[in-house]
């Protein structure tokens, strides 16, 4: 494993959180998880590759939807246990619900309010 | 526990990741962890309160440094297992290293490069 990957403090499951931000708008699109292989593949393929905890396999973001995240830069935090990606979000949709980003619910008056439109019906995205 | 807190999917340790973003610059400042009490206290006190996993106690961000994070908004993601805060970062320093943000290392040519200045010496911050 190359030195830059060794310097990351993987958790007891070999994972770290990866925050993904739209390089142009600055919007935080999503957070997912990466193992060392996913992060290496992200660099090699210049697109975001995560580790799906629910499916227990590598997740090439956009493999079904086409909503690939082209890599702009990779950062790590002071404790070396969180990754921050800047990406170009192809299709302008990061969320599986068809919204621009996963953080479409805002806390207001003690309730979660959806304040982002569905850009594309998920049934059309995942055919 | 109020309904909005019950809707969050806490992990097996009762925690969720909380991403904190500067409301003005859009920079992602840090990621830490919250339990239900920390999130409720964040709302009640209108400032970021985390759960310190290393110290196993509530962490009122800025309690020692003065670098309080004033709450602007709280969001949750599609899976209800990640929180996104927008904050006003008092003092302009989020990181314990004295930098604006924790993500001060950029991957370049297979190495991590520090590309953010230390604004204030940590020895002066934590006296």
Question: Summary?
Answer:
The first copy, chain A, is α+β, with helices and mostly antiparallel strands and 127 residues long.
Report on this model:
The structure is a homodimer of 127-residue chains. Chain A has 127 residues and is α+β, with helices and mostly antiparallel strands. The first copy, chain A, has a single domain (3-96), classed as Ubiquitin-like (UB roll) (Roll). Chain A has helices at residues 3-6, 36-45, 122-125; strands spanning 16-22, 28-34, 49-52, 57-60, 69-76, 83-89, 105-108, 111-114. In chain A, strand 7 (105-108) and strand 8 (111-114) form a beta hairpin. The A-B interface holds A 2-4, 7, 17, 19, 21, 25-28, 30-31, 43, 73-79, 82, 84, 95-97, 99, 102-107, 110-112 and B 2-4, 7, 17, 19, 21, 25-28, 30-31, 43, 73-79, 82, 84, 95-97, 99, 102-107, 110-112.
User: Which CATH class of chain A?
Assistant: Alpha Beta
| CATH homologous superfamily grouping of chain A | Phosphoribosyl-AMP cyclohydrolase
Strand content range of chain A: 35-45%
CATH topology of chain A: Ubiquitin-like (UB roll)
Structural class of chain A: alpha+beta
Number of strands of chain A: 8
Most extensive contact: A-B, 36 and 36 residues
Oligomer: homodimer
The outline of chain A comes out as: globular
**Total number of helical segments of chain A?**
3
The figure for the number of domains of chain A is 1
The residue ranges of chain A in which pLDDT falls below 50 over 5 or more consecutive positions are none
Give helix and strand order of chain A, one letter per element, not per position: HEEHEEEEEEH
Adjacency order of strands in the biggest sheet of chain A: 2-1-6-5
CA-CA gap between termini of chain A: 38 Å
């Amino acid at each position: 494993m190359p030195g830059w990957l060794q310097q990351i403090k993987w958790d007891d499951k070999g994972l770290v959180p990866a925050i993904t931000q739209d390089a142009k708008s600055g919007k935080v699109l999503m957070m997912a998880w990466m193992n060392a292989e996913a992060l290496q593949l992200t660099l090699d393929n210049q697109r975001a590759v995560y580790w799906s905890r629910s499916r227990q396999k590598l997740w090439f973001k956009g493999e079904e939807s086409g909503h690939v995240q082209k890599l702009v830069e990779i950062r790590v935090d002071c404790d070396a246990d969180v990754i921050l990606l800047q990406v170009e979000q192809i299709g302008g949709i990061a969320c599986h619900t068809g919204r621009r980003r996963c953080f479409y619910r805002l806390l207001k008056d003690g309730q979660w309010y959806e304040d982002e439109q569905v850009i594309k019906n998920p049934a059309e995205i995942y055919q």
